[in-house]
Amino acid sequence: MDNFKYLTIVEWAKKYIETEGLKPNDRFLTEKELCAIHGVSRQTVRQAMMRLESENVICRVRGSGTFVSGRTAAPAAAPVKKTVGVISTYFSDYIFPHIVTGIESVLGEAGYQMQLSITHNQVLEETQALESMISSGVCGLIVEPSKSALPNPNMPLYRELRENGVPLVFFNAKYPWADFPCVAMDDEAAGKTVTDHLFDNGHRSIAGIFALDDIQGHKRYSGFMRSCLEHNVKGFEQNVFWYSTADRNEIFRYARDKLVDLFSETTAAVCYNDKMAVGLLQFCRENGISVPDDLSVVGIDDSRYAAICEVPLTTVRHPHSMLGSAAAEILIGMIERTRPEPSDRIFTPELIVRNSVAVLK
Questions:
Q1: Are residues 213 and 226 in the same domain?
Q2: Quick one: CA dihedral 125, 148, 337, 323, positive or negative?
Q3: Which residue range(s) make up the domain with 290?
Q4: What confidence tens digit (pLDDT) does each residue in 24-62 have?
Q5: How far is the CA of 342 from the CAs of 134, 339, 346, in angstroms?
Q6: pTM
C-alpha cells in the first residue's frame, strides 16, 4: 500500500512532537525537511500534512510556515471524527489506489476518516464488509459493487441502508436495481472510442475480449458493438471472447487454441482493460504473433502498465483520482445535506494514442 505511506509519516510526526517536547505554536518541520527525512515525494508529505492539520496536530499559516497546533497538548479535546466506509473490489497497483487516495483526500479535508474494506470482487466478502460497517455505525458508504452484472444476495442490505437513511455512493459501476447515485467513467464511450480508433486506422475484422460478470464489461462491449454497427461490420459477435473476472489470469492458458484461431482471423483486438491487454501482449509474444504488425491491441483505463509495457498501449484514460474525489464530495453533500438529491456523475474518457495500433492500407 505505497499510496498510504503518508499514514506512517502522520504517526511519526505525532511522536516527533512528543519526544522533542514541542509546545503549541512552536515551529514544525517543513515539507522539504520531511521529504528528506522519509525519502518520499512532496505529494506524499502534503497528504500527511493535510491529515495532521485535519486532526489539529499542526496548523499551517500562509507566508509564515507550519506550527504545532494549540490543541496538541490536550488531545482529549479534539473533536470526534465521523467515519465513512469505503468498499473496493481490489486494492492492487492498478487504478484502485488512485481512486481511494482521491476519496481519502477529500474526506480528510472535510474532517472525516475512512474505513477501507476489499472484497476481491466476491459478493460474500461484500456482505461481510457491509455488515461490519453497518454495525460500526459509519455515517456513509462509498462502494464499488462486486460482480455487478450478476444477481446479488446483498439487495436486502442495500434496502436497509436506504430505509435507515444511510447515504451511499457507488463508484465505477452500480447494480441495475440500485437507486443510489454513481460516479463512473462512461464505459460505453470508452469501448466505442478505442474501437472507432481501430476502424479509423483501416481495421475491419476486430476481436473483442470482455468481462461477462461486471457491468463495465457489458457497457464496454456495447460501445464496441455500436462502433461495429456504425461501420457496417456484420458478424462481429463471432469475434467476441467473454471471460469471468475470477478466471482472468488463466484464460490465455485454458483458451489458447481458441484465441490463436480468433487472432488468425482478425487484425486487431479490443481488451476489457489494460491488464487484459498486457496479458494479451505476452500471449502474442509466446505464440509468435507480432504486435502491432500481426495484431493491433487496445486497452481501456490508461493504467501505469499502459505506458511501460513491451508495446506501449493505445487506450483511454480513466479519471481515477478525480472520480474518487467526486464520489467523496457527493457523499459529503448527502451526509451534510448541503445539496439536493444527487444524480450520477459520468466522466468522458480521453483517447491516449501510443504504439500498439498499426495503420492498414
A1: yes
A2: positive
A3: 187-318
A4: 888 899 888 898 888 888 777 887 888 888 788 898 776
A5: 22, 7, 12
A6: 0.77
